[in-house]
Structures are given as structure tokens and as C-alpha cells.
Amino acid sequence: MKRIDEMNLKNKKVIIRVDFNVPLDKNLKIVDDNRIKESLTTIKYCLDNNCKIILLSHLGKVKKESDKVTKSLKPVATRLSELLNQEVKFIPATSGRLVSDAVNNMQDKDIILLENTRFEDLDGKKESGNDPELAKFWASLGEVFINDAFGTCHRAHASNVGISKYIKESCLGFLVLKELDNLLPIIKEPERPFVVILGGAKIVDKIGTIKNLVNIADYILIGGAMAYTFLKAKGIETGKSLIDEESLAFCKEMLDKTNKIILPIDHVKSLDMESDEYLIGDNINSEEIGLDIGPKTIELFKSYLEKAKTCFWNGPMGYYEKAIYQKGTKALCKIISNLSITSVVGGGDTASCVINMGYKDKFTHVSTGGGASLELLEGKELPGISI
Fold first, then answer.
1. 96 has which bridge partners?
2. Which helix (H) or strand (E) holds 345?
3. Which residue, 27, 82, 332, 365, is the most exposed by fewest CB within 10 angstroms?
């Protein structure tokens, strides 16, 4: 697919698939606007080319009619207007006459943002199912399509792959290009030693990634709830810690296959996830829950990171939603920020942690797409990029 800087955009009507899938609090206020900020380079480039700009994005999963109340992109339009110092007109519809009329009435350098593309999923999953009629409608709105939503590049939806089939002039935006420039080198030719840190809860979603990383990484440091599944597979007591039961056999297979996997040797633990009372110890008894890596593990992981030339990190080290169990994640942020290495954070919760803890600028790259970055590491071709 072409690059945005290879296109003639002068005075064109452009459709940009952005990733404004930002977290909102209970008052529908944006908690983290990083993804909006990361879209600005492409949007401003189009403004400089005198374009009319139509923005499409999803926000969360929309499964029932009531989700429309909490998943609207209207707060995003307000925030984007502030960041651009220019009105971004919000269109409270995803298709139909309201959208067509708004686009037909646009002037040069106007920006409109359509409502959440996944509202279309309430009618037979037209967005996520890549419905051709929906894709044709969206494609009819513009002359050029720019895919700048890295976070959905691993999905073939109507708003990315679908549109590109009906608009000949399609390209990748600056955000996606930046992601590929930072992620592909560490997959294809990482400077070694190459250390991967994996955390979070579910292993089943990362099986393909782990299988591939065993072949390309020098060491894989595992924390978070993932670690307890690996430890249990090793025959170690994990108490009431969160376990991904369906992945136990896979974990045992990986541990038998390689000595690259490094697991925690001590834990921050409690009798209750929501309790403020905790202990630190080498073992977890039958009544306890492991909620973070302990100080010995931090030092163990540090010893591997200090040897590294390249590091990729996906997944927090503990139950980060509660401040007292963020220490492991914070410690790794501090360790990596003091090293002269290529350091990439693979989006999702890890990116939010790194940003909220004030370490974003200390890493080589903080990805906007957790799932997309993991599928790249798995060796998959992303449909949103190969279009």
C-alpha cells in the first residue's frame, strides 16, 4: 500500500480511518487522549493540503442499543477541536442522509467526525463483518482513503479493508508508518540480546506470539497473571491466583521446549484482590492471590534487561488497576528508561501504564495498537496494511 507522502492530496476530499478508541470515565470524560494526539500529524498534513477531512473511528465494543449512550465519539470531537484549535463537526450518524448532506456541504479544510463505526454492528455486524454495502457507502464520501488506525490493522473491517476496495487512491497515514518503522526492525533484525517482557492476564490470546517469540527472542520475562499459569504448569503452588486454565498444557509445552522463559521468583500477594493488606514472599499458599512481582523478581528481570540491546514489552506486571500493585510495572519503567537500548511498548494497558506513570518519552516507541503489534510479532500479515 502507498504512503501518504506519495499521494497527491491537494484539494481532495479525504477519508481518514483513525483510532480514537480512547478510555472514558463514568462521566464520559476522556481519561487518556494519547491516541487522539497521535493522529494529529496525518490530520494536519491533510489540512496543509487544503483537504476536506472525513474521520471514521470505532470506540469500544457495541453489542446492545444501550451501548450507544456510553460509546459515542462526541467527547472525542470536542477534544480534537481543542487540540487542533479548529472546529471538528460531529455527525451523530454513521450512514444515511445526515452523513451524505454533511459531506456535500463541506468547505476546504473542514473536518467532520462520524459517529462510532461500530454502531453499525447492531445491525448484523456490518462494520466488523466488513459489509460491502456499508463499505461502498463510506467509500462514496471521498476521493482518497487514508488508513491511519494501527490499532485496527489486524482486523478486516468495513471501515478499513472494505473502503479500500472501492477507492483506488488508498494509502497508509503517518501514524501507521511510524508504527511499522519501529516494530518491523525488532521483528526482522533485532539488535541482540533481544529481551521480551510479557504480562497481563490471558495467555490464550498470545499463544501464537509466544510460539514465534521463542524462536526470535533471546529471553522472555513473564509477569502479571500470565506468570501464575506458567508457574502452575511447572507444578508450583499458585493459590487463588488468576489462572488461564485452557493454556496450562501450552505453558508446559513451552517450558519443556525452551529455557528462554524467565518466571518470577517472589510475589506481592494478598488474601483479597481489593484489600490494601499484602505480603511479599517467595511462595504463594493455598489461600493467597499473587498480585504483582516482588523485589527479587524485579532484580532478576533487571539483570536480563541490563544485558539487552532491544526490548519489547506487552502487559503490566501486576494488578495495576490498584496503586499498591503497580510497583513492579513502575520499577521496570524506571529500569528500562535508564538503559541505552531500543525499547518498544506494545500498546494496550502497558501503553496506558507507561504514559500515566510519566515514562512515555523515555521509551523508543509506545505503540497505539496492542493486538496489532502482537500479531506482527506473531509473524502475521495485517489485513489493514496489506490492502
1. none
2. strand 342-345
3. 27
Ordered domains of the chain (ranges, CATH): 2-176 (3.40.50.1260), 183-377 (3.40.50.1260)
Which pLDDT belongs to residue 1? 83
193 cis-preceded (ω within 30 degrees of 0):
yes
Rounded average pLDDT per 10-residue block, the chain, 387 residues: 95 98 94 95 98 98 96 98 98 98 98 98 96 98 98 97 97 98 94 96 88 95 96 97 94 96 98 94 97 98 98 96 96 98 92 93 95 92 88
Kindly tell me the sign of the dihedral angle through the C-alpha atoms of 375, 380, 382, 383. negative
Distance CA 322, CA 325 (A): 6
DSSP H/E element including 252:
helix 248-257
Which residues does the annotation mark as catalytic?
35, 202, 348, 371
Rounded Cα–Cα distance for residues 52 and 57 (Å): 17
322 within 8 A of 304, measured Cβ to Cβ:
no
Q: How many CB atoms lie within 10 A of CB 205?
A: 14
In 259-326, which ranges are continuous DSSP H helix?
A: 295-305
State the pTM of this model: 0.93
DSSP string computed for 158-219? IIIIIHHTT-SSEEE-HHHHHHHHHHHHHHHS--SSEEEEE-SS-SGGGHHHHHHHHHH-SE
Listing DSSP states for 32-93 in one string gives --HHHHHTHHHHHHHHHTT-EEEEE---S---STTHHHHS-SHHHHHHHHHHHTS--EEES-
